[in-house]
């Protein structure tokens, strides 16, 4: 049987922004990345290295300056779904309507989209909050709504930009476990930006390390831990070695950024 086509292919993607004074800002340079269907890939890199820009280009929210992006399942109604760090849910919509929103955009009928949204709310343990509004929820619950919405769209590719970045440490660990089990059950193709090295190793099949401006791919690291996984792997020596290796790669850039500031 032939291998399934990749879910996402980016080839030599570059991005130049122009500042208000007209000066070019090279945000991304020659990023090439292939994501296999059903894989979980994390991106780490110094702040300002173009991680969000790259995700936005893949999701079609931002134009690229050059390069090619191919989504495997181009015929899909909603090729990608986004989860942002904060403010990713609509404050004027109920939790249920938020989760059903992507399906509404895909012209799924009311009955079917509400059924699907209710299923997803149950899976993130928010059934009791279907009629609530986002401001009535904790930050962790709001992110569960955002994650449920992304999965509920049925999109094969989920792009997550620091989805757990605004949460406290304990909530974050719990959410990591939740995300692992949702993903293990659904096997969507996930590309997730995080500034948390441990999180990238716990969640990812691969950790992509980017370097500071202009953003380039510095290293593509395979994470050896078998699945199913839990955050308990953080206690192993192998985990510590991987964490040290990624930190080593990031430290030079972080140091340079500090020196330049
Ligand atoms: P990251 O998510 O890695 O922190 P971003 O993708 O947000 O980085 O930004 C990459 C670089 O591009 C930064 O230097 C940022 O200032 C610049 N940038 C991002 N968006 C714009 C924009 N709309 N106009 C000009 N510069 C931008
Ligand atoms: Mg960002």
Outline of the structure:
With 261 residues, this protein is an alpha/beta fold.
Looking at the overall shape, the CATH architecture of the largest domain is 3-Layer(aba) Sandwich
Average pLDDT confidence is 92
Order of helices and strands: EEEHEEHHHEHEHEEH
The main β sheet shows up as: 6 strands, mixed
Task: Give the fraction of residues assigned to helices.
Answer: 25-40%
Spell out which ligands are present.
adenosine-5'-diphosphate, magnesium ion
Task: Assign an overall shape.
Answer: globular
Number of domains: 2
Classify the oligomer.
single chain
Number of strands: 9
Structural class given helices, strands, pairing? Answer: alpha/beta
How far the N terminus sits from the C terminus, by CA atoms, comes to: 53 Å
Figure out the total of helices.
Answer: 7
Question: Strand fraction band?
Answer: 15-25%
Structure description:
By secondary structure, the chain is of the alpha/beta class. It folds into 2 domains: 1-78 and 158-171 and 187-261, Rossmann fold, CATH 3.40.50.300; 89-155, no CATH class. 37% of the residues lie in helices and 23% in strands. The protein has 7 helices and 9 strands; from the N terminus they run βββαββαααβαβαββα. It has helices spanning 51-58, 95-105, 110-123, 139-152, 169-186, 197-203, 237-260; strands spanning 8-18, 24-35, 40-44, 66-71, 80-83, 157-161, 189-193, 206-211, 216-222. The protein has a 6-stranded mixed beta sheet with strand order 5-6-7-3-8-9, with helices on both faces. α5 (169-186) links the parallel β6 and β7 (189-193). α2 runs parallel beside α4, α3 (110-123) crosses α4 (139-152) and α4 (139-152) runs parallel beside α5 (169-186). 39% of the residues are buried. The mean pLDDT is 92. Adenosine-5'-diphosphate (ADP) binds at residues 17, 25, 27, 45, 47-53, 213.
